[in-house]
Sequence to fold (205 residues):
Amino acid sequence: MTNNKDKIFNVSIDLFSKYGYDGVSIRKIAGEVGIKESSIYNHYSSKEAIIDSILNYYIDQMMSEDIPIEEASLNLDVSFDYFYKTGLNAFATQLDNERMSKITRIILIESYHNEKIRQFLKKSIIDDAIFGWINLFDLMKAKRLIKDDADSRQLAESFYKFGLFLLYEHYVINYPEDDEKFIRDLCDKSEKHIKLLFNSVKVRP
Fold:
């Protein structure tokens, strides 16, 4: 049985994704949950505390699907195709979750005017992820899969920011559109893009 704190959390995600953070009041959240406004404060000290818990949940879930460098190394040893398909499938699994999909939209639509969310997007979604991809491309150099003079940062930014734009296009520009079709298209386009990058720098036999 869902308790009130979980209901507040889930309803807040629904409302923030539809109306924006500033467009939703504590009173509106309480009304949708079916409790008194004062009851919200038994679980969250403020509306900001609710969005903090949503952002923390999001990054925890994304990190749970993150592939450790040791596992990435083993996947690369199997084949490059297996390596990137494993990563894509893990990411697609997260986006296929309705709650995660809604939070992604919240982050993207709020980042232009909400400083907390902008900083979260910049550090946790962009900078940390690109750093991880730089490490992966460096690993590929060490395994002699790509050329030593390949620019790992450029490769990381070219790949990751391409995918980030696809998310922005779906959740902001084309919203609402079919999520399932988008996830299929995201995987297909990302696969083609990473192959294009890889083929441009791979070590030839």
User: Anything to note?
Assistant: The radius of gyration is 19 Å. The mean pLDDT is 91.
